[in-house]
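Changelog-adjacent note: as of this version, every example in the card shows the full chain rather than a window. The one below runs 195 residues end to end.
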Amino acid sequence: MVRETIVVYGASSAEAEKVFVDAAYELGGLIAKAGKRLVSGAGSTGLMAAVEDGALDAGGVSIGIIPQFMVDNGWLHQGLTETIITPNMHERKNRMAQMADAVVALPGGTGTFEELFEIITWKMLGLFVKPIVILNTDNYYDPLLEMLDRTADRHFMNPVFRKLWAVAKTPEEAIMLVDTLSDWNDTTSKINTNK
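Full-length structure tokens:
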């Protein structure tokens, strides 16, 4: 299945190591070259800016969604194809999820973790059915993936929900997964399995 709009979560930290910045930039370029449009958090620094720049430099469409307070603080990327300003963080995340044909999570900190866990939870509940891909650059997400396995092993999550996300080692693999993964069948959602 061809996915047209890819939402990417990622760090805004300007201190991120080059290996992560380079992978983010490459992902943005691949999204553009595949004829897809990028939706991101509209940030002007870190991996967020790198993926946006990668898409723009490759001639692609880069749409940013950002809450007003971040614009007021000067955090908005100034070169985006389109900017959507929301009143708060909750509306930002909701708009991103509404627009997504797939989600890719780059490495990041607590903000990225929060976005990733929320969209996984929505998928578990049948509220979001599109592919979720974790781009595990330089094995960054290994401890988190181990913790997610632990939640199933210790009976805090049904093992079937390990299929809610896929893991990519490279930007190329992330794009391949975006286009080959099927939508989640919501008959297996937590809501329905408890009936």
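Structural remarks: Helices lie at 18-33, 46-57, 68-72, 89-99, 110-124, 142-153, 171-180, 190-193.
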